[in-house]
Amino acid sequence: VGAACAVAALVALCWELTLGPARLVVPWAPTWGLSLEFTRDGLSGLYAAMALSVGAVVVLYSRAYMPHHLEEEGRPARDEVRFQVLLLSFMAAMVLLVTVDDLLLLFVALDLTTIVSYLLIGFDREDPESRAAALLSLVLTGATSVVFFAGAMALGLQYDTFSLPLVFERAANDPAPTGALVCLAVGALGKSAQVPFHFWLPRAMAAPTPVSSYLHSAAMVAAGVFLLQRLYPLFAPAVAVRDGLLAIGFLSMTVGSLMALVADPFKRVLAYSTIAQYGYALVLVALGSEGAPLYVAAHAPCKAALFLTVGAITQVTGKKKLSEVGGLRHSLPVLAGASAVAAAGLAALPLTVGFFKDEVFFHALVERGPAFMAAGLVGAGLTLAYTLRLWWGLFGGPRQDVPAAPRLLVVPVGVLAASVLVGGFLPGLLVAPARAAASASMVRGEASSLALAYHLDARAENLLAVGAWALGAVLFATRLAWTPRLTRVLEGTSKVGPAQGYRVLLHQLDRLSTWLHEKEVRDLRDRVASVLVPTGLLGMTVLWVTPLRDRFVPGSVGWADVTLVMALAFASAAALATLRARNHLVLVLLISCVGFSLAMVFAFAAAPDVALTSVLVETTFTLLFAGLLALLPDRRLVRAQAEAQKPRGRDRISAGIAGVSGFLLSWSALSHLQADRVGTQTVKLAEAAHSPNVVAAVLTDFRGLDTVGEMSVVLAALLGVTSLLKLKGKG
């Protein structure tokens, strides 16, 4: 059913794309100028079609793969439903990401992919490796998404809008600041697993094979490059930022390719190759090449087919490493043939769609000169070498007999391989969608002139392709001579790389958290101080940096204010008296006097509803505290009271910081009251929200998302407590 729905969505998408570009704008928060904006253009169509088509094939594949996987993990068969729901949810999140046309919505969709990918990567929750990999991906991609949000907010504040068409229009006259562009780029690089954020991707191979196939060929990793393509009009004038992306792209190509040449687990070879391949795509984006969308789309079916191939082999043989298999072409001829086509596409051999992804890559490098051409030749040669190593390691060598693979594990690989061949034999079919995608991702007003065809001549692109094939073949043939030395070098560099830095940072943060926890929970006073002191320091910092004239203005007190002053004086006296209370019951009564005094203040301030609420709350909590004190042992109460009568020096400092900050902030706020008060505006807006009750309008409309968040936290806590009680009952 899930695959059928994906195919139906794909058909609908293709039909809509024939109608031309379109936008949908739905007002979201009109008073803030926010709208839900969606677009249907060549770029979103290409990525959405890629996500839906590859996703449908992976969903079918998982129908045969997951029952066996769940059985091996000792899990019930019904968990397959959860897996399929998560997979389809990620498909929907990916389609949402590529169709939104608003910076804030881009961030929301980006976070949706992060959350669902965390659940998919950690699907085998009983496996420590899966849990660690899921946490790593969540922390790294989530953190870079927050950086992306910072860049989006900076642009929204600068251009007074989050709508991408308006942002692009205003950026044409007022270029985006470099800092904001760097933040956007960091968010994209984290998603696409580019150096230095690349190390989460190989760890994510702990997920079931359908997850690896989909997320790392046509979905999650593709999302990062998509962001850069969608936002390219902002990056186009920022030459320094694009040069940085170019350097990162070449570095990712190198690191990914070298690691793929020595990795032993099947899926890790493919993971490192994904890092390298998206390094190619990043180079194309940085160069402003119109072939970048085509490169990503051509890579997707090749990589998905190879992932599904190794999944089928793992399920048939029970092996996960190249050193443990070989010679499977005799027992699995159809799978070997289909995967050979996919491997040829990945290595950019003729008569496959992959040939044209390298053609546009070489074309972009030729325009930049010999150094770029040499780098591209080496990168393409390494691609052929590790692709040959993978395929030959699986299917080459002495014969090894294994059981036949289930048909539903082989057919999806065949379908993807067929698409690779169709794109290679009929490149004309790719021209229109590739041009539409390129035009949508380029600077406004520029049209794409992308052309795809075989040219039997000595042009530079062809010479580079032939040179890359020759280099790849030589590297593969001589692999036994250089692999051990390369392995030692890479193992040595891994001890000082970003992955090691992440582990050290995590360890230090854990130590810091433990130290803070010990300091905070030592007793109640420290716990309260850990909240009040930072808040007080932040408040005084705000006052220090806020340029307000006449910040502290003394007011006048008339005879009409006498009752209010008396109530405040009584509240202050009761608060000071609590410091000298000799037992807990007196302390509770004095605190209640403070609350009742403030209720009197509200009554004098013409707020009887708030005063009534305050009286009810104070009465209830006074009785509650009195009841709790009656249940506590007298010995503990006496000891606690004795300790409370011995204030420490840091207690006085904490109280001073909090008190001074609260006093100054209150005085400053009351010194700058506007004629058009917030309360007046709230009443007017409550009428616009069709609510006769201002409080209800505030809770459900003005801060509705905040209310939903609070309710979600409470609901999650209740569910957690219920689960714990259920587990306790089982024990």
From TrEMBL:
Transmembrane segments: 43-61, 81-98, 104-123, 135-159, 179-201, 213-232, 244-262, 269-288, 294-313, 334-356, 371-392, 404-426, 463-482, 528-546, 558-579, 586-605, 611-632, 653-670, 708-727
Topology in the lipid bilayer: Multi-pass membrane protein
Keyword Transmembrane helix on entry: yes
Domain MrpA C-terminal/MbhE: 648-726
Pfam families: MbhD (PF13244), MbhE (PF20501), Proton_antipo_M (PF00361)
Keyword terms of this UniProt record: Cell membrane, Membrane, Transmembrane, Transmembrane helix, Transport
Domain NADH:quinone oxidoreductase/Mrp antiporter transmembrane residues, every copy: 101-383
Membrane found in the keyword field: yes
Subcellular location(s) of the protein: Cell membrane; Membrane
Primary localization: membrane
Residue ranges annotated for the MrpA C-terminal/MbhD domain, each copy included: 570-633
PANTHER family in alphabetical order: NA(+)/H(+) ANTIPORTER SUBUNIT, NA(+)_H(+) ANTIPORTER SUBUNIT A
Name under which the protein is recorded: DUF4040 domain-containing protein
Organism of provenance: Corallococcus praedator
